[in-house]
Design a protein that fits this description.
Length: about 350
Protein backbone atom coordinates (compact mmCIF):
# COMPACT_ATOMS: atom_id res chain seq x y z
CA UNK A 1 0.00 0.00 0.00
CA UNK A 2 1.09 3.54 -0.67
CA UNK A 3 1.73 5.72 2.30
CA UNK A 4 -0.60 8.67 1.47
CA UNK A 5 0.35 10.52 4.63
CA UNK A 6 3.87 10.99 3.27
CA UNK A 7 2.49 12.50 0.03
CA UNK A 8 0.40 14.93 2.01
CA UNK A 9 3.36 15.96 4.06
CA UNK A 10 5.40 16.49 0.88
CA UNK A 11 2.72 18.64 -0.77
CA UNK A 12 2.25 20.79 2.28
CA UNK A 13 5.98 21.22 2.54
CA UNK A 14 6.11 22.29 -1.10
CA UNK A 15 3.60 25.11 -0.45
CA UNK A 16 5.33 26.38 2.63
CA UNK A 17 7.49 28.89 0.66
CA UNK A 18 4.52 30.62 -1.06
CA UNK A 19 2.95 33.88 0.32
CA UNK A 20 -0.18 33.47 2.33
CA UNK A 21 -3.31 34.74 0.51
CA UNK A 22 -5.59 36.88 2.67
CA UNK A 23 -9.05 37.40 1.13
CA UNK A 24 -10.00 40.14 3.63
CA UNK A 25 -7.01 42.33 2.77
CA UNK A 26 -7.52 41.86 -0.99
CA UNK A 27 -11.16 42.94 -0.71
CA UNK A 28 -10.19 46.08 1.21
CA UNK A 29 -7.50 46.94 -1.40
CA UNK A 30 -10.01 46.63 -4.22
CA UNK A 31 -12.49 48.90 -2.44
CA UNK A 32 -9.87 51.62 -1.91
CA UNK A 33 -8.72 51.41 -5.53
CA UNK A 34 -12.30 51.72 -6.75
CA UNK A 35 -12.94 54.77 -4.54
CA UNK A 36 -9.76 56.52 -5.75
CA UNK A 37 -10.59 55.84 -9.40
CA UNK A 38 -14.16 57.05 -8.93
CA UNK A 39 -13.00 60.25 -7.24
CA UNK A 40 -10.47 60.93 -10.01
CA UNK A 41 -13.07 60.36 -12.72
CA UNK A 42 -15.56 62.63 -10.94
CA UNK A 43 -12.93 65.36 -10.67
CA UNK A 44 -12.16 65.05 -14.37
CA UNK A 45 -15.81 65.22 -15.30
CA UNK A 46 -16.42 68.22 -13.04
CA UNK A 47 -13.39 70.09 -14.39
CA UNK A 48 -14.41 69.36 -17.97
CA UNK A 49 -17.95 70.54 -17.28
CA UNK A 50 -16.71 73.72 -15.62
CA UNK A 51 -14.36 74.48 -18.49
CA UNK A 52 -17.09 73.86 -21.01
CA UNK A 53 -19.39 76.31 -19.26
CA UNK A 54 -16.81 79.06 -18.75
CA UNK A 55 -17.49 81.97 -21.16
CA UNK A 56 -14.91 83.33 -23.57
CA UNK A 57 -13.73 86.62 -22.06
CA UNK A 58 -12.80 89.45 -24.42
CA UNK A 59 -10.95 92.34 -22.79
CA UNK A 60 -11.48 95.38 -25.03
CA UNK A 61 -8.90 98.06 -24.26
CA UNK A 62 -9.03 101.60 -25.67
CA UNK A 63 -7.65 105.05 -24.84
CA UNK A 64 -10.60 107.42 -25.21
CA UNK A 65 -13.66 108.37 -23.17
CA UNK A 66 -16.85 106.34 -23.23
CA UNK A 67 -18.79 109.18 -24.86
CA UNK A 68 -16.62 109.09 -28.02
CA UNK A 69 -17.43 107.06 -31.16
CA UNK A 70 -14.94 104.37 -30.15
CA UNK A 71 -16.24 104.34 -26.60
CA UNK A 72 -19.82 103.98 -27.81
CA UNK A 73 -18.86 101.24 -30.26
CA UNK A 74 -17.20 99.25 -27.47
CA UNK A 75 -20.26 99.54 -25.22
CA UNK A 76 -22.52 98.51 -28.11
CA UNK A 77 -20.36 95.46 -28.74
CA UNK A 78 -20.53 94.49 -25.08
CA UNK A 79 -24.33 94.82 -25.04
CA UNK A 80 -24.90 92.95 -28.31
CA UNK A 81 -22.65 90.07 -27.24
CA UNK A 82 -24.49 89.79 -23.91
CA UNK A 83 -27.81 89.81 -25.74
CA UNK A 84 -27.02 87.32 -28.50
CA UNK A 85 -24.29 85.05 -27.22
CA UNK A 86 -25.58 84.63 -23.69
CA UNK A 87 -22.99 83.10 -21.40
CA UNK A 88 -20.79 81.92 -24.27
CA UNK A 89 -18.89 85.19 -24.68
CA UNK A 90 -18.39 88.14 -22.35
CA UNK A 91 -16.90 91.50 -23.36
CA UNK A 92 -15.17 93.62 -20.71
CA UNK A 93 -14.47 97.22 -21.76
CA UNK A 94 -11.53 99.24 -20.38
CA UNK A 95 -11.64 102.88 -21.61
CA UNK A 96 -9.27 105.82 -20.99
CA UNK A 97 -6.06 103.74 -21.13
CA UNK A 98 -7.08 101.84 -17.97
CA UNK A 99 -5.23 98.75 -19.20
CA UNK A 100 -2.90 99.90 -21.94
CA UNK A 101 -2.13 102.90 -24.08
CA UNK A 102 -2.21 102.56 -27.85
CA UNK A 103 1.59 102.28 -27.92
CA UNK A 104 1.53 99.09 -25.81
CA UNK A 105 -1.82 97.45 -26.52
CA UNK A 106 -0.76 95.52 -29.63
CA UNK A 107 2.20 94.00 -27.79
CA UNK A 108 -0.13 93.09 -24.93
CA UNK A 109 -2.53 91.54 -27.42
CA UNK A 110 0.14 89.29 -28.88
CA UNK A 111 0.98 88.19 -25.32
CA UNK A 112 -2.69 87.38 -24.64
CA UNK A 113 -3.20 90.08 -22.01
CA UNK A 114 -5.98 91.72 -24.02
CA UNK A 115 -8.14 90.27 -26.79
CA UNK A 116 -9.49 93.30 -28.66
CA UNK A 117 -8.56 96.90 -29.26
CA UNK A 118 -9.09 99.66 -31.79
CA UNK A 119 -5.85 101.64 -32.09
CA UNK A 120 -5.53 104.53 -34.47
CA UNK A 121 -4.34 103.40 -37.88
CA UNK A 122 -1.11 105.32 -37.24
CA UNK A 123 -0.21 102.81 -34.53
CA UNK A 124 0.32 99.94 -36.97
CA UNK A 125 3.44 101.30 -38.67
CA UNK A 126 5.59 98.79 -36.75
CA UNK A 127 3.59 95.93 -38.24
CA UNK A 128 3.03 97.17 -41.81
CA UNK A 129 4.00 100.22 -43.82
CA UNK A 130 0.86 99.98 -45.97
CA UNK A 131 -1.51 101.48 -43.40
CA UNK A 132 0.50 104.70 -43.42
CA UNK A 133 -1.74 105.65 -46.35
CA UNK A 134 -4.39 106.85 -43.88
CA UNK A 135 -1.96 109.39 -42.40
CA UNK A 136 -1.19 111.12 -45.70
CA UNK A 137 -2.33 114.76 -45.48
CA UNK A 138 -5.20 115.97 -47.65
CA UNK A 139 -5.71 112.54 -49.28
CA UNK A 140 -9.47 112.40 -48.59
CA UNK A 141 -11.78 115.35 -49.11
CA UNK A 142 -14.50 114.03 -46.77
CA UNK A 143 -15.63 110.97 -44.80
CA UNK A 144 -17.71 109.67 -47.71
CA UNK A 145 -14.50 109.27 -49.67
CA UNK A 146 -12.89 107.52 -46.71
CA UNK A 147 -15.76 105.03 -46.43
CA UNK A 148 -15.77 104.41 -50.17
CA UNK A 149 -12.09 103.52 -50.19
CA UNK A 150 -12.20 101.38 -47.04
CA UNK A 151 -15.04 99.28 -48.48
CA UNK A 152 -13.24 98.80 -51.81
CA UNK A 153 -11.11 95.76 -52.62
CA UNK A 154 -7.95 97.77 -52.02
CA UNK A 155 -9.23 99.03 -48.69
CA UNK A 156 -10.22 95.54 -47.52
CA UNK A 157 -6.85 94.24 -48.69
CA UNK A 158 -5.19 96.51 -46.14
CA UNK A 159 -6.96 94.73 -43.27
CA UNK A 160 -4.93 91.61 -44.07
CA UNK A 161 -1.51 93.29 -44.09
CA UNK A 162 -0.95 92.63 -40.37
CA UNK A 163 -1.81 88.92 -40.36
CA UNK A 164 1.82 87.83 -40.81
CA UNK A 165 2.56 89.63 -37.55
CA UNK A 166 -0.06 87.62 -35.67
CA UNK A 167 -2.87 90.21 -35.84
CA UNK A 168 -6.23 90.20 -37.63
CA UNK A 169 -7.99 93.36 -38.76
CA UNK A 170 -11.73 93.02 -38.14
CA UNK A 171 -12.89 96.34 -39.58
CA UNK A 172 -12.44 100.10 -39.81
CA UNK A 173 -13.92 102.39 -37.20
CA UNK A 174 -14.32 106.10 -37.95
CA UNK A 175 -13.64 109.09 -35.80
CA UNK A 176 -13.40 111.81 -38.39
CA UNK A 177 -11.23 114.37 -40.09
CA UNK A 178 -8.62 116.17 -38.01
CA UNK A 179 -8.34 119.85 -37.17
CA UNK A 180 -5.35 121.83 -35.87
CA UNK A 181 -5.55 123.42 -32.43
CA UNK A 182 -2.91 125.85 -31.22
CA UNK A 183 -2.11 128.54 -28.69
CA UNK A 184 -1.88 131.04 -31.58
CA UNK A 185 -3.99 131.44 -34.73
CA UNK A 186 -3.04 129.24 -37.70
CA UNK A 187 -4.14 130.61 -41.07
CA UNK A 188 -1.24 129.67 -43.34
CA UNK A 189 1.64 127.16 -43.01
CA UNK A 190 4.06 129.92 -42.00
CA UNK A 191 2.02 130.37 -38.80
CA UNK A 192 3.01 126.86 -37.68
CA UNK A 193 6.75 127.37 -38.12
CA UNK A 194 8.68 126.60 -34.94
CA UNK A 195 5.56 125.47 -33.05
CA UNK A 196 5.57 122.17 -31.15
CA UNK A 197 2.74 119.79 -32.04
CA UNK A 198 1.93 116.50 -30.38
CA UNK A 199 1.51 113.67 -32.87
CA UNK A 200 0.83 109.95 -32.70
CA UNK A 201 3.70 107.57 -33.34
CA UNK A 202 3.82 107.97 -37.11
CA UNK A 203 6.64 108.90 -39.46
CA UNK A 204 4.10 110.26 -41.93
CA UNK A 205 2.66 112.65 -39.36
CA UNK A 206 6.17 113.72 -38.37
CA UNK A 207 6.93 114.49 -42.02
CA UNK A 208 3.63 116.36 -42.35
CA UNK A 209 4.56 118.86 -39.63
CA UNK A 210 8.17 119.07 -40.72
CA UNK A 211 6.86 120.11 -44.15
CA UNK A 212 5.53 123.32 -42.56
CA UNK A 213 8.66 123.79 -40.42
CA UNK A 214 6.86 122.81 -37.22
CA UNK A 215 8.27 120.50 -34.52
CA UNK A 216 6.42 117.16 -34.17
CA UNK A 217 6.58 115.39 -30.80
CA UNK A 218 5.41 111.77 -30.45
CA UNK A 219 3.52 111.56 -27.17
CA UNK A 220 0.78 109.29 -25.71
CA UNK A 221 -2.78 110.52 -26.08
CA UNK A 222 -3.29 110.32 -22.31
CA UNK A 223 -0.63 113.02 -21.80
CA UNK A 224 -1.92 115.59 -24.32
CA UNK A 225 -4.07 117.65 -21.93
CA UNK A 226 -1.24 118.07 -19.42
CA UNK A 227 1.25 118.89 -22.17
CA UNK A 228 -1.07 121.61 -23.49
CA UNK A 229 -1.91 122.90 -20.03
CA UNK A 230 1.76 123.22 -19.02
CA UNK A 231 2.63 124.69 -22.43
CA UNK A 232 5.13 121.92 -23.07
CA UNK A 233 3.60 121.85 -26.55
CA UNK A 234 1.91 124.58 -28.57
CA UNK A 235 -0.77 122.52 -30.26
CA UNK A 236 -2.08 119.21 -31.49
CA UNK A 237 -4.21 117.68 -34.25
CA UNK A 238 -7.45 115.86 -33.57
CA UNK A 239 -11.09 115.40 -34.44
CA UNK A 240 -13.84 117.54 -32.97
CA UNK A 241 -15.11 114.66 -30.83
CA UNK A 242 -11.69 114.13 -29.22
CA UNK A 243 -11.05 117.86 -28.83
CA UNK A 244 -14.38 118.18 -27.03
CA UNK A 245 -14.41 114.96 -24.96
CA UNK A 246 -10.86 115.51 -23.71
CA UNK A 247 -11.52 119.24 -23.13
CA UNK A 248 -8.62 120.42 -25.28
CA UNK A 249 -10.79 123.33 -26.40
CA UNK A 250 -10.74 124.68 -22.85
CA UNK A 251 -6.98 125.25 -22.97
CA UNK A 252 -6.47 125.83 -26.71
CA UNK A 253 -7.84 129.22 -27.78
CA UNK A 254 -7.70 128.52 -31.53
CA UNK A 255 -8.86 125.63 -33.69
CA UNK A 256 -8.16 125.79 -37.43
CA UNK A 257 -10.75 123.81 -39.37
CA UNK A 258 -8.26 122.25 -41.76
CA UNK A 259 -9.76 118.77 -42.32
CA UNK A 260 -6.21 117.93 -43.32
CA UNK A 261 -6.02 114.35 -42.14
CA UNK A 262 -7.94 111.30 -41.04
CA UNK A 263 -8.28 109.79 -37.59
CA UNK A 264 -9.68 106.32 -37.97
CA UNK A 265 -9.12 103.10 -36.09
CA UNK A 266 -8.80 99.43 -36.86
CA UNK A 267 -10.69 97.00 -34.67
CA UNK A 268 -8.13 94.27 -34.19
CA UNK A 269 -7.55 90.98 -32.42
CA UNK A 270 -4.76 88.43 -32.31
CA UNK A 271 -4.78 85.57 -34.77
CA UNK A 272 -4.15 83.13 -31.92
CA UNK A 273 -7.21 84.30 -30.00
CA UNK A 274 -9.47 84.54 -33.05
CA UNK A 275 -8.67 80.99 -34.16
CA UNK A 276 -9.28 79.73 -30.62
CA UNK A 277 -12.90 80.92 -30.75
CA UNK A 278 -15.06 77.88 -31.60
CA UNK A 279 -16.09 77.67 -35.25
CA UNK A 280 -19.79 77.80 -34.41
CA UNK A 281 -19.33 81.05 -32.42
CA UNK A 282 -16.80 82.89 -34.63
CA UNK A 283 -19.19 83.88 -37.47
CA UNK A 284 -21.79 85.11 -34.97
CA UNK A 285 -19.16 87.15 -33.14
CA UNK A 286 -17.86 88.67 -36.39
CA UNK A 287 -21.41 89.65 -37.39
CA UNK A 288 -21.90 91.37 -34.03
CA UNK A 289 -18.57 93.19 -34.38
CA UNK A 290 -19.61 94.44 -37.84
CA UNK A 291 -22.89 95.73 -36.42
CA UNK A 292 -21.13 97.47 -33.53
CA UNK A 293 -18.68 99.11 -35.96
CA UNK A 294 -21.56 100.38 -38.13
CA UNK A 295 -23.13 101.83 -35.02
CA UNK A 296 -19.86 103.46 -33.99
CA UNK A 297 -19.43 105.01 -37.44
CA UNK A 298 -22.94 106.46 -37.26
CA UNK A 299 -22.14 107.93 -33.84
CA UNK A 300 -18.91 109.40 -35.25
CA UNK A 301 -20.77 111.29 -37.98
CA UNK A 302 -23.38 112.66 -35.59
CA UNK A 303 -20.95 113.43 -32.79
CA UNK A 304 -18.49 115.26 -35.00
CA UNK A 305 -21.11 117.83 -35.90
CA UNK A 306 -22.57 118.03 -32.41
CA UNK A 307 -19.22 118.47 -30.66
CA UNK A 308 -18.13 121.11 -33.15
CA UNK A 309 -21.23 123.08 -32.18
CA UNK A 310 -20.58 122.42 -28.48
CA UNK A 311 -17.15 123.98 -28.84
CA UNK A 312 -18.61 127.02 -30.62
CA UNK A 313 -21.29 127.39 -27.94
CA UNK A 314 -18.70 127.21 -25.15
CA UNK A 315 -16.96 130.33 -26.50
CA UNK A 316 -13.74 128.95 -25.06
CA UNK A 317 -12.03 128.41 -28.40
CA UNK A 318 -12.31 130.18 -31.75
CA UNK A 319 -12.81 128.04 -34.84
CA UNK A 320 -10.88 129.50 -37.76
CA UNK A 321 -12.33 128.91 -41.22
CA UNK A 322 -9.69 128.80 -43.95
CA UNK A 323 -10.25 130.65 -47.20
CA UNK A 324 -9.69 128.72 -50.43
CA UNK A 325 -6.39 130.51 -50.94
CA UNK A 326 -5.22 129.72 -47.39
CA UNK A 327 -6.20 126.07 -47.67
CA UNK A 328 -4.35 125.71 -50.97
CA UNK A 329 -1.16 126.84 -49.22
CA UNK A 330 -1.50 124.03 -46.67
CA UNK A 331 -2.15 121.49 -49.42
CA UNK A 332 0.81 122.68 -51.45
CA UNK A 333 3.10 122.54 -48.43
CA UNK A 334 2.05 119.09 -47.21
CA UNK A 335 1.26 117.13 -50.39
CA UNK A 336 4.95 116.31 -51.14
CA UNK A 337 4.70 113.90 -48.19
CA UNK A 338 2.78 111.55 -50.51
CA UNK A 339 5.79 111.07 -52.76
CA UNK A 340 8.07 110.67 -49.75
CA UNK A 341 6.18 107.52 -48.65
CA UNK A 342 5.07 106.28 -52.07
CA UNK A 343 7.46 103.33 -52.19
CA UNK A 344 6.48 102.08 -48.74
CA UNK A 345 2.73 102.39 -49.27
CA UNK A 346 2.50 101.68 -52.99
CA UNK A 347 1.58 104.14 -55.72
CA UNK A 348 -1.32 101.94 -56.84
CA UNK A 349 -2.78 102.09 -53.32
CA UNK A 350 -2.43 105.88 -53.09
CA UNK A 351 -4.01 106.30 -56.54
CA UNK A 352 -6.94 104.08 -55.54
CA UNK A 353 -7.50 106.09 -52.38
CA UNK A 354 -7.37 109.39 -54.22
CA UNK A 355 -9.89 108.17 -56.80
CA UNK A 356 -12.39 107.59 -53.98
CA UNK A 357 -12.85 111.39 -53.93
CA UNK A 358 -14.37 111.31 -57.42
Amino acid sequence: MVDSSADCQLNVAGLAGLPTFNFEEETMFRKITTLVATAALSAMLFTGSALASDPIVIKFSHVVAENTPKGQMAIKLKDLVAERLGGKVVVEVFPNSQLFGDNKVLEAMLLGDVQMAAPALSKFDRYTSKLQIFDLPFLFKDMDAVGKFQKSDKGQELLDTIEKKGLIGLGYLHNGLKQLSCSTPLHVPADAAGKKFRIMTSDVLAAQFQAVNAVPLKKPFSEVFTLLQTKAIDGQENTYSNIYSKKFYEIQPYITESNHGLLDYMVVTSKEFWMSVPKDIRPQLKSIIDEAIDYGNKVAAEKGEADRQNIIDSKRSEIIQLSAAERSQWVEAMKPVWEQFEKEIGKDMIDAAYKSNM
